[in-house]
Request: fold
Amino acid sequence: MEFKTAAIHHLPQIVRLLADDELGAARERFEDPLPQAYLDAFEQIERQAGNSIIVALENDEVIGCVQLTIIPGLTRLGMTRGQIEGVRVARGHRGKGIGEALFRYAIDQAAAAGCEMIQLTTDKSRKDAHRFYERLGFLASHDGMKLTLNVQKSEERQR
Reply:
């Protein structure tokens, strides 16, 4: 298994992973061809410094992914944070330590970029994910909140 920054040819496999769970099934659209929104988002991520999608590869197959965004801040005396999003491991590869290895790699990347903290949000219904994050040393220290800004666009994405 190897870890690397995702390239555009990995995108269909990444979207397949995002769509292959109980929450993703209702939020994502794995289609051929992929909806343009995924291509546009990937291009924006590639252009933004400090924003990347890391993939776990086995025989050139994407078996895991995580988005890591480096966020400079003013609070805590100018602390830089790493934000983790979109964590997935392929269904047939779960329970084999891939998620932990992927997280360790992302944490090392964040530390190398000067981050002093890693943060993430996780859906309250994902109890297994909560246990996984706690096992890695994450603390449920805050309540996350979200506000959908463009309801029409969000509804269009769901179709």
